[in-house]
Design a protein that fits this description.
Layout: H1 10-22, H2 28-47, E1 55-59, H3 63-77, E2 83-86, H4 95-105, E3 111-112, H5 116-122, E4 131-135, H6 147-158, E5 162-166, E6 188-192, H7 197-200, E7 210-214, E8 231-233, E9 257-261, H8 268-280, E10 285-291, H9 295-300, E11 306-310, H10 321-324, H11 327-332, E12 337-340, H12 348-359, E13 365-367, H13 369-373, E14 389-391, H14 395-402, H15 406-411, H16 413-424, E15 427-430, E16 436-438, E17 444-446, H17 459-473, H18 479-501, H19 508-513, H20 515-523, H21 526-529
Parallel strand pairs: 1-2, 1-4, 2-3, 4-5, 5-6, 6-7, 8-17, 9-10, 9-12, 10-11, 12-13, 13-14, 14-15
Antiparallel strand pairs: 15-16, 16-17
């Protein structure tokens, strides 16, 4: 998949750095030099002309401080005069950090501020600082800041300066999306080789600002082949295939036929949103099978999809009679993808119908909303037998499927999604901030697109449509790639909608209309323009 961006724990990153030196012969001092260089390059790119800034670089005693020393030396070589504040005694410096401290010292010693009294004397002189580089702690923190360093971080946050973190804002725990205490609230973070958990998952990622992931010389091979490195962050490079040019002699039959079982009395809009999104994603044909009483509304909401009336219960939901008279079997036959769930309702007869239909279908299946609820507490009844089964729950639906509480799922999203997908041999799309795509082989992808404006009724129906539409168009691509593209485009369409109408008051229909624009935005992304 594209340009793979792994997400690493602090321990995994340390092991890869060690491997880079021991197996691939890249000296650790070179890695540190490259890290400091990338920081300076970012500062030049984002804050030029640097001459107009008063720059303060806060350095700790570890390797993060060593990166800061390199950056300070390189800025001095460019004619800048950054203040360098070492928040430790020089005697505490070891290894590469110590070596770079001595290299910096040759052009002028840093200010040594190793205890609270010296800090109190220094604080007033920082009011004129306009650009802070935070190289205090990096990825090694596992408990909340306290004492002297807590006061330093609090003061950095009070300054009216732009804040750039080296690797990770000081005060964040690298391996968690939780906030364990006060941290530097960065405007940007320059991290190396790969993002860390805290830079990806909320609420910690909200402290990171703009995230720049930089290569410092780690070979790509060092990030491959280890099954423990199962988590990755999606990027535009993963979607390069989505915009492949279509043949001149194209016809609708080439791009799949999606069948949606969706809608009920009072919930026809869910079916229409899913149908529109499937077509907006590029599917050749879409048919909506819906209860007879809902059909006029579903049909009136769009001219482009076909509809099929199905027998209904007294409550206006799908009836088992759709199986008894053979109508549904005939409708399912020959379809590229079956998507089941949006607006179907929770009628027991309808849920029995869902379970029966799904287990008899060999085509790829997308299961959402009430389709998922039909298997609440009954996941063992969902047969896969090597067939493509895609489940797209939000946390509440996931709780009903898995038996965990919603709170447990939200606290352990990656672990729950991965275990569920591998245990039941399904592809799981766990929706929410940073939607997860977990595959039966244990690989998990994290989607960076989307925004709080998407917390409105119908956006999940749009995702069902996009997912089904792309599966129909690209039957020969790996399912995980198609799902990653669907989730990424869905979130990006939401981002475009938020820019157009604003995040508050945005509706699912706004998102659906912008799915083609999201595909174009991916195609025009600078990362893809080089490919």
């Amino acid at each position: 998949m594209g340009d793979t961006v792994k997400i690493l724990t602090a321990k995994q990153m340390q092991a890869i750095d060690r491997q880079t030196t021991e197996r691939y012969g890249v000296p650790s001092l070179t890695l540190m030099e490259n890290a400091g260089t990338r920081v300076v390059e970012f500062l030049v790119e984002r804050f030029s002309p640097l001459e107009r800034h008063e720059i303060a670089i806060f350095c700790g005693a570890g390797n993060n401080g060593g990166d800061g020393f390199v950056a300070a030396r390189l800025l001095r070589e460019k004619g800048m005069r950054p203040r360098v504040l070492l928040m430790a005694e020089p005697g505490a410096l070891r290894g590469d950090a110590g070596a770079n401290y001595h290299r910096l010292n040759a052009s002028g010693p840093p200010e040594i501020i190793s205890e609270a009294e010296a800090w109190e004397r220094t604080k007033p002189s920082l009011d004129s600082v306009s650009l802070v580089v935070d190289a205090l702690l990096g990825t090694g923190l596992s408990k909340p800041l306290g004492g002297f360093l807590l006061e330093v971080v609090q003061q950095i946050n009070r300054l009216s300066a732009a804040r750039v973190a080296v690797d990770l804002p000081s005060g964040l725990a690298a391996d968690s999306g939780d906030l364990i205490g006060e941290c530097v609230r960065a405007d940007a973070s320059v991290t190396f080789t790969a993002p860390k958990y805290a830079q990806v998952f909320p609420p910690a990622c909200e402290m990171v600002g703009e995230l720049r992931v930089c290569d410092i010389g780690t070979p790509a091979e060092a990030l491959e082949g280890d099954p423990a490195l199962f988590l990755r962050l999606l990027s535009p490079g993963d979607l390069v295939w989505v915009n492949m040019r279509r043949k001149m002699d194209s016809h609708k039959g080439l791009y799949g036929h999606v069948l949606l079982l969706a809608g009920s009395f009072g919930k026809a809009g869910a079916a229409a949103l899913a149908a529109k999104s499937a077509l907006r994603s590029g599917a050749g044909l879409v048919t909506v099978g819906t209860p007879r009483s809902a059909l006029p509304i579903v049909a009136s909401l769009g001219m482009e999809w076909m509809t099929e009336p199905l027998p209904e219960t007294p409550a206006g939901t799908l009836s088992l009679r759709a199986l008894e008279d053979g109508t549904l079997d005939a409708l399912v036959g020959g379809k590229s993808v079956l998507a089941v769930g949006p607006g179907l309702g929770s009628n027991p007869e309808t849920q029995e119908l869902i379970r029966t239909v799904i287990n008899g279908v060999t085509a790829p299946l997308v299961l959402d909303a009430d389709g998922l609820n039909a298997f609440g507490g009954r996941m063992d009844e969902l047969t896969t037998d090597g067939r493509v089964r895609v489940l797209t729950p939000h946390p509440g639906e996931m709780a009903r499927l898995s038996g965990h509480s919603t709170a447990e799922i939200q606290k352990h999203r990656v672990e729950v999604a991965r275990k569920f997908a591998t245990h039941y041999h399904v592809h799981l799309v766990l929706k929410g901030a940073r939607t997860l795509i977990a595959a039966p082989d244990g690989q998990v992808s994290v989607n960076p697109t989307g925004n709080p404006g998407m917390a409105t009724g119908g956006t999940g129906d749009c995702l069902t449509g996009v997912t089904a539409g792309l599966l129909a168009q690209f039957p020969d691509r790996p399912v995980s790639e198609v799902l990653a593209a669907a989730v990424y485009l869905h979130g990006l369409a939401g981002d475009l909608a938020a820019r157009t109408v604003g995040p508050v008051g945005m509706m699912a229909g706004d998102l659906a209309d912008l799915i083609p624009a999201a595909r174009r935005a991916v195609k025009d992304h600078p990362q893809l323009a080089r490919q």
